[in-house]
């Protein structure tokens, strides 16, 4: 079985870990949250690239067979460098604008992502490959990550901020919304409250985990007899609050997995 590293600026990547534990429960995971530095989305490209690389090197040094960069912002700014440096499979996430363009009936798609993702060359290169008859309404979700990091995903405050951010998307009449940051699936309830049930929400976690599985299959690792592998939560800020946020935000039953919580201490 594999040891998989999952990394995000904070708790957003838990939306990917959740799906990974559903599809690949026997593998062992290290979930690394750089919560002391979240949000990444408002930081410079160089900072994001070098910090993401250091954290992925840390995960590789712990023996990970593969790493999921479970952060759209870090993927946009750093994945090329991470892949060039490490020799294990590195799986990234990017806003699902392609499936959104294919699924939208009225060809109006909202994209909610961080400022850094929307400005990145990687995102804009992907956008340039898509049909011109689809209109994309890009909106930065400034402030939302911090609210989710502080356990306020379901609060009135989040609902109000989200309403402001979603207004241009709603006004444009989008029938599809891309959740372009791994934190945003945790706002699904609030988004539905504001935009209703008919809008299609695009979240790529299922596709990301399928890609992880394909990559792990190529490694031909030894199989394991346990039903549920271990999950180690590592935080650069506070490991016990990471664990309690994980319990609140994730839908898988974490009590099935032997879990550990550690503080990030040895990364440069
Ligand atoms: N979860 C992240 C993403 O997918 C990063 C958000 C942030 O730290 O700004 O982009």
Number of strands: 10
Q: Can you give the mean pLDDT?
A: 96
* Strand order in the largest sheet: 4-3-1-2-9-10
Strand proportion, as a percent range, falls in 15-25%
Q: What overall geometry do the principal axes of the alpha carbons give?
A: globular
Please tell me the CATH architecture of the largest domain by its name: 3-Layer(aba) Sandwich
Instruction: Specify the number of helices.
Output: 11
Separation, N- and C-terminal Cα atoms? 29 Å
Overall tally of domains: 2
Question: Mind telling me the C-alpha Rg?
Answer: 18 Å
CATH fold description of the largest domain = Rossmann fold
Oligomeric state, counting identical vs distinct chains? single chain
Characterize the largest beta sheet: strand count, sense, and whether it forms a barrel: 6 strands, parallel
Bound ligands, each once: D-glutamic acid
Order of helices and strands: EHEHEHEHEHHEHHEHEHEHE
Helix content: 40-55%
Structural class: alpha/beta
Low-pLDDT stretches are none
CATH class (first level) name of the largest domain: Alpha Beta
